[in-house]
Specification:
Blueprint: H1 2-13, H2 34-48, H3 54-57, H4 63-74
Helix pairs in contact: 1-2
Length: about 80
């Protein structure tokens, strides 16, 4: 799942792959703004055919938070 998220971040938001680690903070380290986060959520929902609630989205601080949430929703391994 981490690799899939990393791929989305690189392809959709043009983030340097070397900067994407599980510990990287989406806003502080990767520079993702609220619009980009909303776009990322939509991309994840489309890619995995899921719905992500606002409550879950509010918990996204690091890449790992996103990976963990997607893994729980989809049932795939992190």
């Amino acid at each position: 799942m981490f690799e899939k998220v990393k791929e989305l971040l690189v392809e959709e938001l043009d983030i340097n792959a070397d900067d994407i680690t599980p510990e990287a903070e989406l806003v502080n380290d990767l520079g993702i703004n609220s619009l980009e986060l909303a776009d990322l959520v939509l991309q994840c929902e489309d890619k995995f055919d899921i719905e992500i609630t606002d409550e879950v989205i509010n918990g996204f601080v690091t890449v790992e938070d996103l990976v963990t949430a997607l893994s729980k929703i989809t049932g795939e391994e992190e």
